[in-house]
Write a structure and sequence with these properties.
519 residues, alpha/beta, Ubiquitin-like (UB roll), 4 domains, 5-stranded mixed sheet, 18 helices, 13 strands, 13% strand
């Protein structure tokens, strides 16, 4: 219902007649009798007085069986929506006010013409950046571009959108959302996929676009804005659909967005964290997957296309071709954590084995344990004929990878239940010894603390989110001894400060006095 217009559908003539009776009864009780009834079937209008119909000869003459609502026309005999090109004056000179007025005449509430309308939005933003007054004439180059845009309106009456999307209660229904962004705009589109036996039908349901901010924003962040737009559309539109049970699949061609969604929001900057939180509140992160750009219909909405190209564009009106095939032929599902530039040092590229539980018991010094494990990993990589550094000396990256692996092995052993919960994006149990530290797993798989200093700009990442290590483990013992040695037997405060700049070990002072010789 929009202002004084009511649009509805039904799965049978009986349901339609019952809906009419309920509407009439409800609104008549408040003094609002309904008029101008129309339908695509004569039987539904048979019991309505002729003076309450839009036209008494409706459905009698094909050319006259049309109705207009929300700026869109509906042809009852073919049950299709269509557009009528607006009347535009052909003027040699244009102003910003006139351009905005002409844009407003093309009303598209469902976003079916989004790839075309977004071009007008982008053009209006360009005019705005010219710093012109509302009644100042546009430069000649902008006038020519706008006149060319208006000439394409002639193809508008060739577009037909079926009202019925092949849905019935007994059919299997899915919704698929696509999002994309360019440097000038970002957009999203939602499709409804209906399976009837061995036949699958896909129709565009709704779409929306927004121009990129005037202030320059990186493309990955614009892609994230597109994902947020899709999540907001899904939260707004899908609950209103007459479908009791339907899955929502979300698709993006940005691997960076998928990497952001695959990690807790607290790990990212404020801009990213806020949007990731909103997206995951409206959609499930595991339902986000990657789609190739050439198969992404939202790509059309983000960069804009001419109206002539949109008329018979199967990608826009029916989604990618594989969406009409069995699910086994879709792109791989659930792979929402592809390698990206955010993870240039994945654990697998540097290490090849997991040390045994008694590995650290063989070493009396922390630095020797790191170097020993790094050499073992290099040897295994060479046995597998993988690329390894030619330098006989270990590289800093190899030492760092060995350190991460020792930490990972320790945490998985001593915090096994906590690690399992965090890996599945669940909270740690109330009985957990690290509950008070708000633990999370970083991009390398390590458990870190999320404390009150996380918002500090003066602290490094390791200081804001130290790695959590258990109190009684060989790694913590060797780490304390190593710090005591490199500080030349420094005092208690110095050692605690150095260790806590990267690690959080409960009861650290007790461990230091107990496990460090000479104190």
């Amino acid at each position: 219902m929009y202002v004084d217009d009511i649009l509805a559908g039904a799965d049978s003539k009986e349901d339609a007649r019952l809906s009419i009776q309920e509407l009439q009864s409800a609104l008549n009780s408040a003094g609002f009798p309904l008029r101008k009834w129309t339908s695509n079937h004569k039987d539904i209008l048979a019991h309505i007085p002729s003076d309450h119909l839009l036209r008494s000869d409706f459905l009698e003459i094909d050319a006259e069986s049309t109705a207009k609502t929300l700026g869109v026309r509906w042809k009852a005999t073919s049950d299709e929506y269509f557009f009528v090109p607006p009347e535009l004056s052909d003027e040699s000179s244009l102003t910003k006010r006139q351009v905005l007025s002409q844009i407003a005449k093309l009303f598209d509430p469902a976003g079916w013409l989004a790839p075309f309308v977004v071009r007008a939005k982008i053009f209006m933003q360009e005019i705005w950046l010219q710093d012109l007054g509302w009644d100042d004439e546009l430069p000649s180059d902008l006038c020519l571009r706008w006149q060319s845009f208006l000439q394409s309106y002639s193809a508008l009456n060739r577009i037909r959108i079926p009202r019925w999307v092949s849905f019935r209660p007994e059919f299997r229904v899915e919704h698929h959302g696509f999002c994309d962004a360019s440097q000038t705009a970002y957009g999203a589109a939602i499709y409804v996929r209906v399976e009837v036996g061995h036949t699958t039908m896909v129709h565009l349901l709704t779409a929306k676009t927004r121009v990129a901010p005037v202030k320059t924003v990186s493309l990955p962040r614009l892609e994230l804005c597109g994902a947020l737009l899709l999540a907001e559309m899904a939260a707004s539109v899908l609950p209103s659909m007459p479908i009791l049970k339907s899955e929502l699949f979300c698709w993006t061609d940005s691997t960076i967005v998928l990497a952001w969604l695959n990690k807790p929001a607290c790990q990212w900057t404020t801009f990213v964290a806020n949007r990731v939180t909103k997206i995951t509140q409206s959609t499930k992160a595991e339902k986000w997957s990657h789609v190739q750009s050439e198969h992404n219909p939202a790509d059309l909405a983000s960069r804009g296309v001419a109206l002539q190209e949109l008329v018979d564009n199967p990608l826009w009106w029916h989604g990618p071709a594989w969406l009409q095939k069995p699910r086994s032929q879709w792109p791989s599902q659930g792979d929402n954590s592809p390698a990206t530039e955010l993870e240039k040092r994945p654990l697998k590229s540097h290490v090849a084995t997991i040390p045994s539980e008694d590995f650290l018991d063989r070493f009396s010094k922390f630095d020797k344990a790191l170097r020993g494990l790094a050499y073992v990993n290099r040897f295994i990589q060479r046995c597998k004929k993988q690329a390894t550094p030619s330098d006989k000396h270990l590289l800093a990256a190899e030492i760092s990878a060995a350190e991460r692996l020792l930490i990972l092995n320790t945490q998985r052993r001593d915090f096994s239940h906590d690690y399992h919960c965090l890996s599945e994006k669940r909270s740690v149990p109330s009985s957990s010894s690290i509950l008070s530290m708000n633990p999370f797993i970083d991009q390398h798989g390590l458990i870190r603390a999320f404390g009150r200093v996380t918002a500090s700009d003066s602290l490094q990442y390791d200081e804001r989110h130290p790695v959590i290590l258990p109190y009684s483990c060989p790694l913590s013992r060797l780490l304390v001894q190593f710090t005591h040695r490199i500080t030349l037997h420094g005092g208690n405060q110095l050692m605690v400060r150095l260790i806590r700049s990267r690690y959080w070990i409960p009861k650290l002072k007790n461990l230091k006095s107990k496990g460090t010789p000479g104190l």
